[in-house]
Amino acid sequence: MKNAVHAAALCALASLSLAPAAPALAGPAEYVFPAIVEEGEKEIELKAGTRKLRDGSRESEYMIGFGIGVNRWWFTELSAKWHKEPAEHHDFDAWEWENRFQFTETGRYPVDVGFLLEIERPHDRAEGYEYRWGPLFQADIGTSWTTNLNLLIEKHIRTEEPEPAELGYQVQARYRWRPELEVGLQGFGEFGPWDHWKPTTEQSHRWGPALFGAVKVSQRTSLKWNAAVLFGLTNGSPRNQLRMQAEYEF
């Protein structure tokens, strides 16, 4: 455990030392990254979300991807993303390549530790590339709760205008009631530049209740889903947001 925690700390410090600084709001289809990798598991995934902004307009997004647990410590997924700005049509927005690495053996220590490296290539070449990286933490509390905490740095490079990096987070608490239906909460937020946070009222924080479920389709296939209604907690947040994620695993 000592080596795993040390590795996670080094990754977090590397994230901070490599990132310069400025804020960007994650998309409406945002989701919580798990720290655990399932070796050999393949999945087809749909993610979608919509949110009402402070000015009353609406922004939407959906993503379709294919992922695979390459081995016991590496999961990779390639997704296509469509985005709708207020008063515009849905247009293809970007390709996204997600990579998750698990540092600890599942369940061996009180906290499972992982790491995210995500690269996004926007359709609009003027937007350059988007990188997101940081440590992932997952832990069971007692026999009924599973919790997640992710600390992530987001940085755009090769853009027409320089954009500093931003520090964000994801939190989740899930009560394992029964596989078909579980309850909990999810929270997402951005503080602003990692080394100089925005005033609290200008930060974006979105929290709300969530539902989770899993249905066994056959011995080797299953359908998992989760959805949440999020509410903006500051003036820098959307008024509200609805997000969902569905995975067909085989």
UniProtKB/TrEMBL annotation:
Keywords (alphabetical) are:
Signal
Point out the signal peptide segment.
1-26
Record-given protein name: Transporter
Q: Which organism is it from?
A: Ramlibacter monticola
